[in-house]
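Batch manifest, entry 17 of 40.
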Amino acid sequence: MTRSSETIPVSAIILTYNEQANIRRCIERLGWCDEVIIVDSRSDDDTVKLASSVRSDVRILENTFEDFGRQRNWALDNTDPRNQWVLFVDADELCSDEFQAEVGQFIEETDCVGGYVAGRNYLMGKWLKYSTMFPSYQLRLLRVGDVRYEKAGHGQRELVDGKLAYLKEGWRHESFSKGMTDWIARHNNYSTEEVALILDLRQQEMKWWDLISNAPIKRRRALRHLSVRVPFTPVLMFLYTYVFRLGFLDGLAGLTYCSLLMAHQIHVVAKVRAHDYADRVAKSAGD
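Output type: C-alpha cells
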C-alpha cells in the first residue's frame, strides 16, 4: 500500500504492542494521512514487520511503555512529525471516509488547537451505540506544541493551551478484535491502575454542577467523581448503562458488554477495599 493521491497534512501516530491482528487494517485506513508513524512498545509478534509491509514509508520507533500519557508525550517529543497536526490512532481503530473528510475540513478552517474524537465500539459485529455511552470523547487530533498528556487511571488526561472542538465523525473501534480473553486480561490490568485514580479523586472536591454541563468531557469527569462517592457502584454501573442509557437496545451484545463493565467495576471495588485494608493494617502496626 502507498499513500493516497489525495493526502491530508496530518501525521498519524499509532501506539502499538503486539498488534499483528489489527495493524494491517488500521494502516490501510490511513492512506489519506501524509505520514504514518508507529511507536511500538517492543512487540514480540509480527506487528513491526506487518506495518512495514503495508505501507512502504511508515516510520517505526520503539519506546518502552509506562502509561498512555507518557507514551503520547514521548511520541510528540521524539518522532519529529513533519506536519503541524497529529492524529493519535490505536491499532484497533479504523478510520472512515467521513472521518477523513471532516479532519481535512477541520484543520483547514479551525482556530482550535485540537479536536475530541468519539469512536464507535463494536462487539460481535454490532455497534454498541447505547451501552458504551456514545459519544465518549478523547482528545486525539491536536496541533503540535499545544497539547500534553498526563496519566489518569489506565488512560490519560489532556493538558491544553487553547480552544478545543468536538468532531462529529469518528472511527470504528474493534476493542474485542483479539478475543474476549484478551479484553478481560487487559481490563484486569486497567482495574489495578484505576485504584490510584480513585484514591486521588477521593481527595478532590467534586464540582456537582458539572453533572449538568453542556460539555461532554466535564459531565464524564463529574460522573467519575460521583462514582467514587456512592455505594454499590457495580450495580449502579449496570443499571446506568443497561437501563438509563438504553443499553438493552443493543441486544445480546449490549447485555454482554454491560455485564462486562459491571464485572470490571467489581474488580475495581475489590482492589480498592484490599488497598484500604492493607493501609489500616499498616497504620495499626505503626501505632
